[in-house]
Every structure is written in C-alpha cells, then in structure tokens.
Design goal:
Layout (H helix, E strand, L loop, with lengths): L1 E4 L5 E4 L2 E2 L5 H11 L6 E2 H9 L7 H16 L12 E4 L2 E4 L7 H11 L2 H4 L3 H17 L12 H27 L3 H14 L4 H13 L3 H19 L5 H12 L26 E2 L12 H11 L9 E5 L6 H12 L6 E6 L19 H11 L11 H12 L5 E7 L2 H4 L10 E6 L12 E5 L5 H12 L1 H6 L1 H11 L3 H13 L5 H9 L1 H7 L1 E2 L2 E2 H9 L4 H9 L8 E2 H8 L3 H13 L4 E4 L2 E3 L2 H9 L10 H23 L5 H4 L13 H25 L3 H13 L8 H18 L2 H19 L2 H12 L6 H17 L7 H16 L3 H17 L3 H18 L2 H17 L3 H18 L2 H17 L3 H18 L2 H17 L3 H15 L25 H19 L4
Parallel strand pairs: 7-9, 8-11, 8-12, 9-10, 10-11
Antiparallel strand pairs: 1-2, 2-3, 4-6, 5-6, 13-14, 15-17, 16-17
Helix pairs in contact: 1-3, 4-6, 6-7, 7-9, 8-9, 9-10, 9-11, 10-11, 12-13, 14-15, 17-20, 19-21, 21-22, 22-27, 24-26, 25-26, 25-28, 28-30, 28-31, 30-31, 30-32, 31-33, 32-33, 33-34, 33-35, 34-35, 35-36, 35-37, 36-37, 37-38, 37-39, 38-39, 39-40, 39-41, 40-41, 41-42, 41-43, 42-43, 43-44, 44-45
Length: 1021
C-alpha cells in the first residue's frame, strides 16, 4: 500500500520501502497533486503552481517527464503500455487515485473527525483526556517544516497553511493540558513558542494562564507587558480585548482554574460561514471569437427569458474542436449582467482522456464533486456540505432559490452528469456543452438543443486572418482556400493553422497548404503546442465501447461520401437494427453525421482520424475486409436490381457469388432510385479498389458490368470513365483477363452512349470481344460486347458491320439462353436498318423484338422495340400508327423506371410527329425529351435530339430559338473526338449524318474553344 508524507519533507513508501521521488521540483509536482485529495489539476494549474507566473519554455516538457518518472516510481510493476491506475491523466490534466488515508494530512483529518463531541461517546471525565491524546497524535505527524525545501508558489501557499494549522492544533491541545492541570509542562512548551510567534496573542494568553495557576503571577503580568511592547513597537497597536481582559483578571487575582469539561474542547475548527462576493467563475472571453452571430443571439435570448415557469437550459452539441466551449463562454460574458447573483462554471471533463484506458472507459467529474465545489464557491462551510449526491443537489437548489445565477457546465458526458446540477426554481439558467447530443435533455421543459456545424468559409477566413494576420491571408488567396479546405471549417483546425503561421512569420501559406494536402500528414500538421485536432477526436473515441469503436473505425474505410444503413450493416457483418443503434449513437456523440434517415457520413477530419486508427494498436482486423464486404453487398444488390430492371437477363447467374443477400426491390422504379442515389459511392469505390487491388477487384468489375447492361451511365459519366480507366489499369497489371474485359465493356458503354467518344468505345468493345469463351460467364460477356458493337458501328447506309455484330450477339445469347441480349440486339438491327433506309426489314426486326420483350416481361426493351417499330412505320408513311406506337413506347418506358429509355421514347415520339408534319405537337415533346436526357445520360443522345428540336423550331419559323438550339448541339458535339461518325435519320429526305446540319455552328464553336485555349497558355493569336 502506498503512503505519503507532506507534513515535513515530501516522502512516499510502498509498504515499508521508501520510494525515490527524485528532484525537489518533481516532489513539488507530486505535492500539488497529493494536496488536491484526488481532484484533478490541469496542466496550466500545475505549471503555475510549480514554475510560477513566468515558466521556462521547457516547462511543459519537464512536467510530462516528471509525470513519467513518478508513474514509474509509484507503479514499478505496471506492464509497458498498460494504463496508469495511480497517477492518471484527464483531458488536459492529472490526478492521483489513492486509498483514503494514504497521505499524512488526511490522517490528521481522520483523527480530528474521531474526536468531534458528537462522536466521542465517552464519559465527560474521560473526554478531555481522549481528545488531548488524539490531538497529540495528530501533531506528531508533523516531522518538520511542511513541504520542506519545495519550490513554487503552490508549495509556498500550502506550507503557510499547514504551519498555521499545526499551531492552531497545538493551541487547542495546550488548552486541554491546562484543563488537566499540567501547568509546568505547558509553561516549558509555551516559552519557546512565544519566542517563535511573538505576536500571536493566543499563545501569549495560554502562557499567562499557565504561569498564573502555577503561582507565578508576576511572570504572567510580565508576559503581558512584553506582548504589549512588541505589538506597539512592530504594529503600533494595543493587545486585543481578550488578552487585555485576561490581564485585568490576573491583576485582580480572580482567574478561575480551567474545568475538566468538553464544552469548548472540540478540536476540529469549524470555520464560520464566510461572506462570499458575487461568484464569477467564467473563464476569460475569447478575444477573436468569430461568426455564429445567429446562434449567439438565439442562445442569449433563450437563457435570459423570464417566463417564470421553468429554468432555461441550453445544450450546445457538436464534434470535438467545433467551438462549443468558446461559444458558451462568449455567450456567458454577453449575458452575465442579466445574472446579478453570479456565474458558476465547471469543466466536467466528460470526455477527458482516461490515462491510457481503452475505448469504453468512462471519465468525468462526478456530479457530487461538482456540487461540493459549487457549494464551497457559494460560501457554504465544508462541515455543512451534505455527504450524498441527492442531499447536495437539494442543498444547491435551495441555495439558488430566489437568485439569478448562470450555471455553465462545460464538456459534459451525459445527462447523469448534469441532471442534479440544474436549479429547481426559475431565475437561474444553465448552459451545457457536450460532444454528446444528450437526447434526453430536450424532452425536459425549458430546454433548447443546438448543434454547432462547421464554420462558413467567410467565417473561417476571418478567424484565420485574425490569428495569422490580415495582410498575410490576403496575399495568398488560393493557398488560403486550400488550407481552409483541409481544415474542413473546424474552428480548432483553423486556430491551429493560424497559430502555426503566427509563430512562423517566414513561412508562406502555400508551404503549409502543401503539407495539409497530403492526407497522411494532415492530422500531424494540425498540431500546435498542446492543441491538436487528433487529440480532440481521441477524447471522444476513448469514450466508446468496443462495438462503437469498431463501427467508427470500419465505417470510415470505404472512401464514399455517405453510407446507407444497409451498407453499414454489411461492412460490420451485423444485424441492421443493432447497426442502426451503433450509428445513431455515433451521431449522438458527434463522431458521425446523418445526411438523411438511414444515411450516414463523416466530417473529413474525423474520417482521417478513424482511418489512422487502423495503423495503430486498435487495428484488430484488416482494412480490406470492410471494402470487400461493402462491394459484396453492392454486387448482391445489383443482381437483384438486374432481375427487376432487365427481366430475361441471365447476367446475375454469371456474376461472382456473394455472401450478402443484398437489397430487394418491389419494382424497377424503386431499383433505379436506389442506383441513382448510390452512383457517386460506386465511383468512389472503383477508385479506391483501383488503388488497393486484391480481392475487391473482381467484385468491383462485376458491379461495373452489371451497371453497364442498364446502358444508362448516369449524370457523372465523365468521372465514371476516369475511375474505370484506373480500375482497368489495375486489372491489366493483375493479369486478370476476365476482370479486364468486364471493365472494358463498361467503358465501351460509357464512351458510346454517354460521352459520344465512339472510336474509344468501340476499341474497348472489340478487345472484350476477343475474350476466349472458356466459361458460360465469358460467353455471356462476349455476347454483350457484340450487342454493344452492333450499336456503335452503325454508320448510315453502311450496315454490314453492325448487322454482323448483332447476329453474333444473338447466336451467343441463345447459347447461354439469354433472351434480353437477343432482344436488345434485334432492336439494334432495326435501328441500323431504319437509318440505312431499309424500313421493311427494320419493321420486321422491331416487331420480333417487341414480341420477345413482351414474352419475357421486359418493359424497357419492349419500349425500345415499340418506338423503333413506330419509326419504321413512320418512314413508310403510316404516321398515325407510328404516333400510336411511340405513345405506347413512352408508357412502357415509364413503367420500366429508367429515365434514359423514357427520354429515347419521347425523342422518337417527337420524331414521328415531325415526320407527320405535326410540328406544334412535336416541339414540346422534343423539349421534354431533352430535359429527360439531361438528367439521364451524356451528350451524344442529347445532342441528336437537340438537332431534331432545332429542325422543328426552324420549320415553325422560330429562327432565333432554332439557332440557340443548334448552338447547344454544336457545344455538345464539339468535345467528341469522332463525332463525325454520329448518324441519325431524322427525315425521309435527309440521308447524311446530322452533323451536316451543324457544320457552320460546329466550326464556330471549335474555333472559339481553340482561341480560349491559346489565350490560356499564352500562345499568339
């Protein structure tokens, strides 16, 4: 058992073995913690107490070094890396966790408690002797000057108090000796004490009493005369009334002997209730507080309302480093005049670092301790403070009844830590800050919950300028933008960046921006002195239990903007209900955010922190597992989606097997809605997979192939093309031919249908077509590649290549029993023949495709076959039937839930109206088709419809509108490297490519683009 002494030299023992505590400065640090009786001391408090007001720059480092050596001395057997249990760390400070009575000064308290009159239980004749013995035992614990030789202001203050306490106890024990008639012994003891404390009247009075009752009246009077002389010479004052009265009674010889009674013998001095000035515990306001004007106004108005019914309570929530404490202190100072009875403030250390403890360990100041501190600050004597939490809470509420006091509870952990600290009657107000959302508190009457978000860009820039300097920030606007992007609007991060720049005036902001741009360096760079973004997140992480901690780490692995609840369940391999509880608890702790019901995301910096945890001791499972499980979930869901959106397709059978079951969909509309929401995530996952490779590669390639067969590349087709090329390079390096060809058919689809880069798309499709059909899955992939080529090789009157590829696709599709590929290829044949002017054959193939699509229940393919049949009938002059068929195709396309197919169907409907000469009906339909295709696909299909829309407008005499539409079509075609190969039959009289209509506009657009490019690179015009 550990024992400590401070009533002399500072010493420590384990059992009977004395410990080596090191230097005097280290002992002073230990004493500062010992004399706090288990309460924590912050690093600034310890620095001030040991080093004084002007510490050396190395003080913090020396403090940490002393803590390290003290921990080794106090717990020599503690395994390396194990958490300290004696000298523990909290957020920004330290405390000692010792058994009661481990320090000699605590033993003094225990001895004095034993001799309180209500605890003695002895007969009056025995009580005086018992009290005297306990006092004497307590005094023997002093072994010399308290805190002997220790440096620092704190040791000086405590030394004075401990010396005073010893003298007071000695006076009480001598008074009892007088009652016991031990005059001779007392005279011998008091004589040197009077010399040591010449102006202490109580000691002089005791000596005068002892001398008188020892029969030495003249000497007693001489002591008074000496005392009076000293006081007059040194202080210019007469002795006090009590000593003067004693002098008169000795002169009259009427001083009775002390009695053997305990009426006034209680040794434990109970200080009287002290008059306390208006309590004002708020820390200094933040000088450069920036932004949050609406929030400040809202909170201020809430806390100062006087409805007379309840106590206003405001809970400020948000992630670590978001500025909760700064906002609370700022608001407190703004409204302090509204609370004339004072302001109480406490840091509850609710998320304090637990001295190396692992996730799930709880910390924070107990509510009972906080109430004790508040009651002391309000002037309640120590002896009158109730012992239990419930009693202290009632005492606190009673004290604040009828008063207006602002109570600021900073850094609270949960409702248990604050509920008993809330006043019970109107008048006072409570302001709480917490990383937890405390969902229970807003249910209370009079509670306002606010959540702090990151700073707006202009606020972050203002804050940075206020710290680093306005001119400096104005000189490098681009670098400042980069720095603020890296900080993510987190005030703590901006402050750290500003502090680093202010401390390094020769640094450019650009150099710091370069460091922050590297995600691997970012958290390390966001550190300045004791401020660190990583440390702020670590405090929150250390409060998590094991399941929460694992969820926080693993859900950050996928590099996606947001993650759905079902995807999170797949990553964690757990039940959806349990995962929702975990995710919501992380949201409540502000470690995650929720963008919508069932969808979760991270702020950039907490995500980086979570990923870095995988590099430390917390990494209990490989990172790749989370990525593979997520892709497995997406692949399983895509299989279910294909079944709904592309009936008749056997593709799901040829995709890789999955562990997950994936989501199921009631119809194609719901399926398409899910896919549209997840497209950005899929793009991010492709890019991440391209970087990490491994088992994730095959699943990513299968997902890409599944999306490709829906044809619709979505609105992010350029970004999708970029990351698929990276994924393709990874597959080629891995030497996996099957994966390579899956990615190539996807790229081929995007290039041809979305980007209009037909030559590049055909190259990918042709390479995929060369895949040896060693398995049914390979043959199914080759069939799809041939289907794509039957569309991308269509070039006006030249039909051979396109028809050959369609026929090959149909042969392969029949071998793998896939009617969907066969049907799509028949539609492509109808389109090719129609563009070539072979309308009867086109009509035959379209009719066959329509029958097959209806048979397999594929509304999307039936819509395509129907509008191609309608186009062929229109070109043959049967306009009314063509319009009816195309109207039917629009309804079928809507039933399919695919906007791309609806856009195509609308375009064909406008087309047949145009051929029928119904231009007024055709124009709004064409406009609707363009709007639909704007949302669904890239420029090629949209540009073709724009040309048709322009023709209609021109024919209607709306020349200026037609010019604008042609111009838009030219803008869309201009980036296409091989746009001249685009072909669309728009009219029975028009046989050439549609770009013939746009030649003048296209030449103008291309010339303007070249001129802008030359100016950008400084080329001569």
């Amino acid at each position: 058992m550990l024992k400590f002494a401070v009533l002399g030299e500072v010493r420590a023992w384990r059992d009977e073995l004395e410990l080596d505590l090191g230097s005097k400065q280290r002992r002073a640090l230990l004493a500062a913690l010992l004399l706090r009786s288990g309460r924590s001391a912050t690093v600034p408090e310890l620095i001030d107490g040991v080093w004084g007001e002007h510490p050396t720059p190395s003080a913090i480092g020396a403090l940490r070094n002393h803590i390290l050596h003290l921990r080794r001395a106090l717990e020599p057997d503690r395994p390396s890396g194990a958490p300290a249990t004696v000298l523990v760390g909290f957020g920004g400070g330290y405390a000692l966790r010792l058994a009661p009575g481990s320090v000699d000064v605590e033993q003094v308290d225990d001895m004095l408690l034993e001799v309180q009159p209500d605890r003695q239980g002895a007969e009056p004749s025995q009580a005086v002797e018992l009290v005297r013995e306990r006092l004497d035992a307590a005094l023997r614990l002093w072994s010399g000057t308290p805190l002997a030789g220790l440096p620092g202001p704190y040791a000086d203050r405590q030394r004075t108090q401990l010396i005073e306490r010893r003298v007071t106890l000695l006076e009480q024990r001598i008074e009892l000796d007088l009652r016991l008639g031990r005059y001779t012994e007392v005279i011998a003891e008091l004589t040197p004490l009077c010399a040591e404390h010449p102006m202490r009247e109580q000691i002089r009075g005791l000596l005068m009493t002892a001398l008188y009752h020892a029969g030495r009246q003249a000497e007693a009077l001489a002591v008074y005369a000496d005392t009076r002389k000293v006081l007059i010479e040194r202080l210019g004052i007469e002795p006090g009334q009590q000593l003067a009265e004693l002098h008169q009674r000795i002169l009259r010889a009427d001083l009775p002997a002390p009695h053997r009674t305990t009426e006034s013998a209680a040794p434990a001095v109970r200080p009287p209730r002290r008059a306390v000035a208006r309590v004002a515990q708020l820390p200094a306001d933040v000088v450069d507080f920036t932004g949050r004007a609406d929030m400040v106004r809202r909170i201020s108005e809430w806390l100062t309302r006087t409805d007379g019914f309840s106590v206003p309570v405001c809970v400020i929530g948000g992630m670590g480093g978001i500025g909760k404490s700064a906002l609370a202190v700022h608001v407190g100072h703004l409204i302090r005049d509204q609370f004339p009875d004072g302001q109480l403030h406490v840091d509850l250390h609710g998320f304090a670092a637990a001295g190396g403890r692992g996730p799930g360990d709880r910390s924070g100041t107990p509510a009972a301790d906080t109430l004790g501190d508040f009651l002391r600050a309000l002037g309640v004597p120590e002896g009158e403070i109730a012992p239990t939490l419930a009693e202290r809470s009632a005492q606190f509420r009673s004290f604040l009844d009828g008063k207006r006091v602002l109570v600021v509870l900073d850094n609270a952990r949960d409702i248990d830590q604050v509920a008993s600290l809330i006043p019970g009657t109107p008048g006072s107000a409570v302001l709480i800050t917490s990383r937890s959302s405390m969902p229970e508190l807003p249910c209370m009457v009079g509670t306002l919950g606010v959540r702090l978000d990151v700073l707006a860009r202009v606020e972050a820039r203002t804050l940075l300028a206020g710290i680093a300097g306005l001119r400096r920030v104005a000189a490098e606007p681009a670098a400042v933008d980069s720095v603020l992007d890296a900080c993510g609007g987190l005030p703590l991060a901006v402050r750290i960046v500003g502090a680093r720049l202010a401390a390094r005036p020769n640094w450019s902001i650009s150099s710091l921006a370069e460091r922050l741009a590297d995600e691997k360096q970012r958290l390390g760079t966001l550190r300045s002195g004791d401020l660190a973004v990583e440390a702020a997140f670590r405090l929150s992480y250390d409060q998590l239990d094991c399941a929460q901690a694992r969820a926080f780490r693993m859900l950050a692995v996928p590099e996606v903007a947001e993650i759905s609840l079902n995807a999170a369940a797949a990553i964690l391999g757990s039940d959806r209900v349990l995962v929702e509880e975990l995710c919501e608890s992380l949201v409540d702790l502000n470690l995650m955010e929720t963008s919508a019901s069932g969808r979760y995301t991270y702020h950039d910096l907490p995500r980086l922190f979570a990923r870095e945890l995988h590099l430390g001791p917390e990494a209990a499972e490989p990172v790749s597992g989370a990525l593979v499980r997520l892709l497995d979930f997406y692949l399983a869901t895509m299989k279910n989606l294909i079944v709904v959106c592309n009936p008749g397709s056997t593709q799901p059978e040829h995709l890789g097997s999955t562990v997950a079951h994936g989501l199921s969909f009631v119809d194609s509309i719901a399926a398409q809605y899910w896919l549209d929401a997840e497209r950005p995530n899929l793009i991010s996952l492709y890019e991440q997979t391209a970087r990490v490779g491994g088992p994730a590669l095959e699943r990513a390639a299968d997902i890409a192939w599944a999306t490709a067969e829906l044809i619709d590349g979505g609105p992010h087709c350029r970004e999708l093309s970029r990351v698929l090329k990276k994924l393709l390079d990874t597959a080629i390096r891995a030497g996996n031919r099957g994966v390579e060809c899956r990615i190539r058919v996807t790229l081929g689809t995007i290039c041809c249908y979305s980007l209009g880069t037909l030559r590049e798309g055909r190259d990918h499709q042709r390479i995929a077509l060369t895949l040896p059909p060693e398995s049914a899955s390979d043959l199914r992939l080759v069939a799809f590649a041939a289907q794509l080529l039957s569309s991308s090789t269509r070039m006006g009157t030249e039909t051979a290549a396109s028809l050959a590829h369609a026929e090959r696709a149909i042969r392969f599709a029949r071998r793998v029993d896939d009617p969907a590929v066969e049907c799509a290829s028949l539609v492509n044949m109808a389109k090719t023949l129609s563009d070539a002017g072979q309308f009867e054959q086109a009509q035959h193939h379209a009719s066959t495709a329509k029958t097959l699509a209806a048979k397999i229940g594929n509304a999307g393919l039936e819509a395509m076959a129907t509008h191609e049949l309608g186009a062929a009938r229109g070109f043959l002059g049967n306009h009314q039937q063509a319009i009816e068929l195309c109207n039917e195709s629009v309804q079928l396309a809507r039933l399919s839930g695919v906007e791309l197919r609806e856009g195509w169907a609308l375009a064909r409907l406008a087309h047949v109206h145009m051929m029928a000469g119904q231009l007024h009906e055709a124009e709004p339909i064409a406009d609707g088709a363009i709007r639909m295709l704007n949302r669904a696909i890239g420029p090629l299909s949209r540009a073709r419809v724009l040309v048709m829309h322009g023709l209609i407008l021109q024919a209607l005499g709306r020349t200026h509108q037609a010019y604008c539409v042609y111009r838009s079509a030219a803008e869309a075609f201009a980036p296409m490297g091989d746009a001249q190969y685009s072909h669309e039959r728009l009219d029975g009289e028009l046989e050439g490519p549609i770009l013939a209509l746009l030649r003048e506009h296209l030449d103008q657009v291309i010339a303007e683009r070249n001129e802008r490019r030359d100016r950008a690179v400084g080329a001569p015009s």
